[in-house]
Every structure is written in structure tokens, then in C-alpha cells.
Amino acid sequence: MALARWNQTRVTEFMLLSFSHGQPFLFVLFLAIYLATLLGNSAMLALVSLDPHLHSPMYFFLGQLSCLDMCYSSVTVPKILANALRPQATISYCGCLAQMFFLMACAGAECAFLAVMAYDRYTAICQPLHYTHAMSWGVCVVAATGCWLWGMLDSAVHTLLASRLSFCRAARLQHIFCDVPPLLKAACSNTRPSEVALHAASIFVGLSPFLLIIVSYLRILVTILRMPMATSRHKAFSTCSAHLLVITLYFVTANLNYNRPSSGYSPEANTLVSALYCIVTPMLNPLIYSLRNREVRGALRKAVRGWGAPGSSSSNV
């Protein structure tokens, strides 16, 4: 009995079965995506920091989102790149828990940031006279700090529960990185507490912000439709369209990743869903904002052309 227990708990590394052998093509593909993610989000962060016309609460949170997306990719992609060229993909036990902690922290923080950004748009469009007070810089800093701490607290719970699981000595994860679902599938001990925590997080960390976003945008839609001028409606819609695209992309892929059917996906589909959620989405976010947001496009054109003359003042809406 004691020997069997020893064989379950003495796990020093996991084998990642989604990589069956060295794959140079995947290395090149993930490297290109990673570099594009770092370049796009760094450029967005630089624009928000350096352009005075983007010094508003909406772009402050957009800069936080860009920083978060770079962290997202940096948690998973470097290890994927290393494993893509190895005969057998592995990750150490401690490295797996660390990767899972930062991954879940980013996931929880992004849900919170998207909800705060929706509230920012609601206040700017539906309550413009109260916008300066409701979204003061002090409020923004507190909200941003709360989003990061919210993600870390949620992640700490999942990581603590995962550290108490027992694994067979030849532990195998049918995945390309460490995440809660594949860890639970590979565990040899009772996973019920972790499953309950994952379902609870889906409600409080995922569903609650999503419902707040839905309510905010329903109120925004009603307000926009009541605007008398078509130009005002178009301007209001343009400030929200990029955020709505990012919200849709993130929550759809997150739901596919964490609320999968009980039968699960095929290994190929599982890898694709996880790649979309954690790797491709952070690359697309700055592209969506740069294409759909007029102020960001203007700041980007000025940066590329080296123009130093200030443009027209941007509105809160």
C-alpha cells in the first residue's frame, strides 16, 4: 500500500503527448505568432503611453489588456517552442504548476478587465455627465489592481488544489501546455474538489463578468438607438465595436476550453481550441483594436509618419 502511494506521488515531470516528435513546422508557426503578439501588443502599449490623445480611462484599460496578452503568450509559448524541437515534449512538475498558476491568473484577470471596459463604455455613453467622476484615475488604478488580484486569487485556489492531487509516475498530459482540465484527467486521486472549484470559477470568474458585459451593452444599445443624430450613433457604435469583437472572441474560446462536454474533444480538437484561446487570441486583440478604433488608427498613423503635430481632441464617448 505504501509503495503504491509512493508511485503515485513521486512525479517529477509530465509528458505532453500532443507533441509526438520534433516538429519544426510548429516551431516556426508558434514563433511567428509569438513575435506578432509581442510586437502588436508592445506597439499598442507604446501608443497608449506616448500619445496624449489616448490618455483616457478606456485606453488605460486597453494598455492593461495589451500587457495581459503579452503575459498570456509568454506563459505558454516559450515552453511550446522548446518542446516542438524535442523528441519527447515534457514539463517539470513544478514548472507545470507554475505555468498553470500564471495561465489561470491571466484568464481571471482578462474576464475582469473586459467587464470593467464594458462598464467604462456604459458610463461614457449612458451617463456622460458622471463619467469624469465615475472613471477618475484613482478609480481606474483601483479597478486595474483589483482585476489583477482577482485573477491571482482564483488561480491560487486552482493551483493549491492541483498540488494536492496524486499522479502516476508516468504521468501523461494530452495537451501542449499545463492547464486544469488535462491535469484533472491525468490524476490518479480524487479530483472532485478541483472540479467543483473549476465549475465555481466558471460562474463567478467567467459568467458573472460576462453577464455584466451583456447588461452594460444592452443599456448602451438602448441609449444609442435613442440618439437623434446618425453621426452620434455611428460614433458611439465605433467606440464599442472593437471591444465587442474582443469579448466575443475571448469568451467563445474560453467557454470551449473550460466548459467542454463530458466526453471531451479529440486530441487534435483539444489542441486547436487551447491554441485559439491562449495563443491566437492575444495576437488578434491589438489587430482588432487598431483596425476598428479611429483614435488608435490615428495615433498609429502619426507614429509611423513621425508627425509631431497634435490632432483633434478625442471625446470620452
From TrEMBL:
The keyword Cell membrane applies. It is a multi-pass membrane protein. It is found in: Cell membrane. Its main location: membrane. Residues 40-289 form the G-protein coupled receptors family 1 profile domain. GO terms for cellular component: plasma membrane. Pfam families: 7tm_4 (PF13853). GO terms for molecular function: G protein-coupled receptor activity; olfactory receptor activity. InterPro entries: GPCR_Rhodpsn (IPR000276), GPCR_Rhodpsn_7TM (IPR017452), Olfact_rcpt (IPR000725), Olfactory_GPCR (IPR050516). The chain crosses the membrane at residues 25-47, 97-119, 131-151, 200-222, 234-252, 272-291. Keywords: Cell membrane, G-protein coupled receptor, Membrane, Olfaction, Receptor, Sensory transduction, Transducer, Transmembrane, Transmembrane helix. Belongs to the G-protein coupled receptor 1 family. This is Olfactory receptor.
